[in-house]
């Protein structure tokens, strides 16, 4: 039995964000959700790049099907009524029926992997042309359907679900730090929902090498329902609630209730949802319209020159299609004067960066309290009661930077003129440089803790994050090595503080 997709889709900014950095795409053969990240560093552009590559690949499939139809017509293939040649297809850009896709599941996976690789390469080129885009990235959940089998490519923490016979199954596995802790049995699902590092992604499409997606295939059957969504939905709504809302008989009603539930949970992120039903295909079925959602429907992607390779391949070596590494500062050709440059982001656009903060900033009440306590302490010092005030201050601890390492401080992160109200209590071996850049910034701004034990737990978590980042950067460095040594011009030396090819991006990932 041949099946077809019938889908509804929606993308919105949510209740808190100022712009929509999500993108989506739905056609009779492809379903895709991409959640851009990076805030001021153009997460919307990154997700739009991914969807642009999807559109190009889908158009090539339609053109190939159109060519096959024309060839069959030229060979005198009978028409649908058996009376003569079938009429030529007028336009190659019309959506093709799912049954006309002749690729086998492994070939569909190759198509999806190629889409992800080209999107990653294009992001690297944009960052090389405009360094202000450094740190942008996107998740990708991409499905391709041939009438029987579904191919799926996944990278990041957007999710794909299958609802079959009333049972909801997650088809993807989050590439996040918190998910790795769940896998190791170190935290529960309930703890994960409130973990301070729940938005740290271990894999994301950001122009760096070695960002291969998870690939899988699934046999579909009549009555199946698919859900693709960004974490503006699945990051706020539990799976059991998702399953009950998705089970509504009318997909449009299910979509509306899922959006309402995301709003009820705060609507703190962009929300993108695609729901697709698997129906029996008929000859007279009307194909659904192609839909382009979110940032991909509004942004123009700048044209840039391809990134030059770091080292030439040997003459007998074939290009393996690997994404080029982002060049070091000063390497490669500078962007031309005609290359569009993204304007400086407004403060509102930087709200996305809060998604990757180590923890939420202190509440207004706590800031007021800390200021009041500092004032009281000053008065006590001036009034001769310094001993008691300092004794209270010694019960307070926070995490901060001690030169290039992490340290636990005793006291308050304030001073009275030349008098510091704190002292270094413990210096830890974890280096700031081994953390993602946004984590480094949080440590330098200091992290409030409730006690010495709490401060040590925070340091332990930071150490685990740094170890994971070190491992990933070492893997990237190994993959950046050329296939074999070849003579090449010696590059100009760069200052010691130039970023290394494995430097962490600014989006909170490693």
UniProtKB/TrEMBL annotation:
> What organism, scientifically named, is this protein from?
Desertihabitans brevis
- Is Cell membrane given among the entry's keywords? no
Per its UniProt entry, which superkingdom is the organism in? Bacteria
Q: Composition bias, kind Low complexity: at what positions?
A: 70-88
SUPFAM superfamilies associated with the record = PP2C-like (SSF81606)
Q: Where is the composition biased (Pro residues)?
A: 482-504
Keywords on this record? Membrane, Transmembrane, Transmembrane helix
Q: Where is the composition biased (Basic and acidic residues)?
A: 468-479
Annotated ranges, domain PPM-type phosphatase = 5-278
What are the TM regions of this chain, as residue ranges?
A: 371-392
Its recorded name reads: Protein phosphatase
| Annotated GO MF terms | protein serine/threonine phosphatase activity
Looking up Gene3D superfamilies in the UniProt record yields:
PPM-type phosphatase domain
**Is Transmembrane a UniProt keyword of this protein?**
yes
Spell out the residue ranges making up region: Disordered.
61-92, 304-359, 467-510
């Amino acid at each position: 039995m041949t099946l077809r997709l019938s889908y509804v889709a929606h993308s919105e900014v949510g209740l808190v964000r100022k712009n929509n950095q999500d993108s989506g795409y739905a056609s009779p053969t492809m379903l895709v959700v991409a959640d851009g990240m990076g805030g001021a560093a153009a997460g919307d552009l990154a997700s739009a790049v991914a969807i642009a590559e999807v559109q190009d690949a889908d158009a090539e499939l339609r053109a190939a099907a159109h060519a096959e139809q024309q060839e069959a017509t030229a060979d005198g293939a009978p028409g649908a009524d058996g009376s003569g040649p079938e009429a030529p297809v007028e336009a190659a850009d019309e959506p093709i029926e799912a049954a006309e896709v002749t690729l086998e599941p492994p070939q569909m996976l190759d198509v999806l992997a190629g889409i992800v690789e080209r999107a990653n390469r294009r992001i690297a080129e944009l960052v090389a042309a405009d360094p202000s885009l450094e740190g942008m990235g996107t998740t990708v959940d991409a499905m391709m359907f041939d009438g029987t089998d579904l191919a799926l490519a996944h990278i990041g923490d957007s999710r794909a679900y299958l609802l079959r016979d009333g049972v909801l199954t997650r088809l993807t596995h989050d590439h996040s730090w918190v998910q790795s802790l769940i896998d190791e049995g170190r935290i529960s699902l309930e703890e994960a929902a409130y973990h301070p590092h729940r938005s740290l992604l271990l894999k994301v499409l950001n122009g760096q090498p070695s960002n291969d997606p998870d690939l899988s295939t699934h046999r579909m059957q009549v009555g199946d329902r698919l859900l693709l969504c960004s974490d503006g939905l699945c990051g706020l709504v539990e799976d059991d609630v998702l399953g009950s809302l998705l089970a509504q008989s009318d997909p449009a009603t299910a979509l509306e209730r899922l959006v309402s539930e995301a709003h009820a949970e705060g609507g703190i992120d962009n929300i993108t949802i695609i729901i697709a039903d698997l129906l029996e295909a008929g000859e007279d079925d009307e194909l659904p319209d192609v839909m382009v959602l979110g940032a991909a429907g509004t942004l123009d992607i700048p044209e840039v020159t391809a990134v030059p390779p770091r080292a030439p391949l040997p003459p007998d070596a074939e290009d393996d299609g690997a994404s080029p590494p982002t060049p070091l500062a000063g390497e490669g050709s500078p962007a031309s004067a005609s290359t569009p440059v993204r304007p400086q982001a407004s403060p509102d656009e930087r709200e996305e960066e809060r998604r990757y903060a180590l923890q939420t900033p202190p509440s207004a009440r706590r800031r007021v309290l800390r200021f009041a306590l500092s004032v009281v302490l000053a008065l006590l010092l001036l009034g001769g009661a310094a001993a008691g005030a300092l004794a209270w201050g010694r019960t307070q601890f926070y995490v901060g930077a001690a030169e290039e390492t992490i340290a636990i401080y005793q006291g308050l992160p304030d001073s009275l003129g030349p008098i510091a109200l704190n002292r270094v209590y413990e210096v830890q071996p974890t280096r700031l440089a081994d953390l993602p850049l946004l984590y480094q910034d949080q440590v330098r701004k200091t992290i409030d803790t409730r006690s010495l034990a709490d401060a040590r737990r925070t340091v332990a978590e930071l150490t685990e994050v740094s170890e994971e980042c070190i491992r990933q950067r070492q893997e990237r460095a190994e993959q950046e090595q050329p296939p074999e040594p070849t003579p090449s011009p010696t590059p100009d030396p760069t200052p010691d503080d130039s970023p290394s090819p494995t430097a962490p991006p600014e989006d909170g990932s490693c």
